[in-house]
Design brief:
The chain is mainly β.
């Protein structure tokens, strides 16, 4: 498990994230899950786009550079959609809806990804 902190804002983005590195783990992502706990997340590496097909709940999405700088955020991405994408992104963090707002994360913020 990893912990993700917004060091620009001094906030916690995600306390318990899993990493999906293989093609199949990234493709499956959060499909078929009933929910994502408020402290949980999924970090897709490498990745620059997502889909929400076969998901049952909205999510917040953060696109990150190789150096963990926030390139874009998307809030309340609804299930069964294609996208969003972010050219130049190297990682995508999928979070429970409301996590971006709670952590005050914005484009340009520096995140820290650490083993918990």
């Amino acid at each position: 498990m990893i912990r993700i902190t917004n060091i620009t804002r001094g906030t916690v983005v995600c306390r318990r994230a899993r990493i999906a590195r293989s093609f199949w783990h990234r493709l499956r992502g959060l499909m078929f899950r009933r929910e994502l706990a408020p402290e949980d997340g999924l970090l897709l590496v490498p990745e620059w786009s997502i889909h929400t097909f076969f998901m049952r709940f909205p999510i917040d999405v953060i696109f990150l550079s190789r150096s963990d700088v926030v390139l874009a955020t998307h809030e309340q991405v609804r299930p069964n959609r294609l996208g969003p994408t972010c050219r130049g992104a190297h990682k995508v963090l999928e979070l429970p809806a409301g996590a971006v707002r709670r952590s005050q994360t914005e484009e340009g913020d520096q995140l820290e990804i650490a083993v918990a």
